[in-house]
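Most newcomers find our protein records easier to grasp once they have seen one. Read left to right, the backbone structure tokens trace the chain's path through space. Nothing more is needed to start thinking about how sequence determines fold. An example says more than a description, so a record of this kind follows:
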Amino acid sequence: MRTDLGHELTRAVMTTADTFLRQGQRLFRSYGITAAQYNVLSALAATGEGISQRELGDVLVVDRSNVTGLIDRMEKAGWVRRANDPADRRVFRVLLTPDGRRLWKKISPVYETVVLQVVEGLSEKQTLATLSVLKHLQAGAVAWRLPEK
């Protein structure tokens, strides 16, 4: 592949990611939460018994120390709670509170509508191909090596 096409592709991916971030902030701010907090609510809504902070970090692809602060703020807001894990006393499970579930149920349909607007006009084949390309780029970014000086 030509280097200029690679630059154009990576710049387009970065610009798209930045646009999603800005627009997501605008959407979620109107509900008094952040995109990261919505992602936590969604991850927890998908499980009935909650998940550990470590698992949450893996799902969100963020550092465990960032998860702790995020959960602290959400716990203070009353959206999540920590509970002892019955199988391992060293682990806390994070669960949605009733207020957290109500908030998620309020925002989730709006987010789903926005997602449908974003992908409108893309066929399933185009969507699957794009997902494949993005996974390839992500793997390439993880594996890159800096050239020697």
